[in-house]
UniProtKB/TrEMBL annotation:
The protein's name: proline dehydrogenase
Record: residues binding FAD: M141, Q169, K193, G194, A195, T232, H233
UniProt pathway annotation: Amino-acid degradation; L-proline degradation into L-glutamate; L-glutamate from L-proline: step 1/2
Gene Ontology MF annotations: nucleotide binding; proline dehydrogenase activity
Gene Ontology biological process: L-proline catabolic process to L-glutamate
Amino acid sequence: FTNEELLAADALKSIARDQQIKKYIQQSSDLYPLLLRAANRFVSGETREEGIKKALELSARGYMVSLEYIGENTKTIDDCVYAKNEFLALIKEAGSQLTETTVSLDLSHIGLSVDSDLAYKHIDELAREAKRLNVSIMISMEEAAKTDKILDVYKKVSEYYRNVGITIQAYLERSVTDMKELLHYPGKVRVVKGAYQETEGVTIPRSQNLNERYLHLVDLLVQANHAVSIATHDETLIREMHKRDYLSLPHVEVEMLYGIRPDLLKQLKEDHFKARVYLTYGTEWYLYLCHRLAEYPPNIYVAIADIVNP
Ligand code: FAD
């Protein structure tokens, strides 16, 4: 990436969480619809109905879907209960309309930022309903400061529910140790490279070294016959796993974010591999858009083109 692109990416990371900018955009009748146009490439819409509609379309085209109601770091109990109820409604609707669904969530969206017990109470309620409707839940992994708490809640809920999975970030130094432990739990493990800006020494930057770590984590899962979601858009990694004959294994799937490398995911689906689209909806699309632009700065030009030429 150019220096300018990297500077823009850094700025976007700060802008994404700035409450005043967010409020300004939400109240601006000029800016709001323009940015929503750019977001439409990456999110299904603002409402659950739009999420389910897009999920049904993708499912009819042969993809599996993970659905997420966008949000994180919910600060009040009322807002956590609101988010949990939205997920409950999503599980009910997705469970009754789609044959195979995963609902994906950040624990900090439903309680972890208030306290771990609240997050556990909520995920327990969601997992119970999801199990009844044959829906899976996938817990996302957040900043390194939350890793222990997230793993603790996952392990606790896994004692009762096999339909709950967990995400592991290959860029964390600790992940190989964590993975060896996670192999003893029943839930699917989603392997990602990792998306957060952490203090130095906590993570490995994008590199060949990181790709080798990623492959090692997938190896551990495959060799243990453990359900795994290979969540990456990295063609080199996917090609390597194809070479190792992982992609045709019944417990292996490839998962990509909606709107990012749809060509690659389509090719995998046409080659009869299990292909899952991670699809989001919600009024917090602005945060999600900033993340997608920041992690791949050339997307800034794509966003401008979407705004100018919808
Ligand atoms: P990279 O090395 O970042 O990218 C490889 C190539 O993919 C790039 O060269 C480019 O061609 C393409 N690419 C990557 N990103 C983009 C983009 N935004 N736009 C266009 N092209 C792009 N991270 C977490 O920390 N916690 C989570 O819980 C989490 N859940 C995820 C769930 C799913 C299903 C996926 C796919 C990702 C998730 N992530 C999560 C994000 C992940 O950590 C990475 O930041 C993201 O996937 C980009 O890394 P990559 O593996 O695609 O490889």
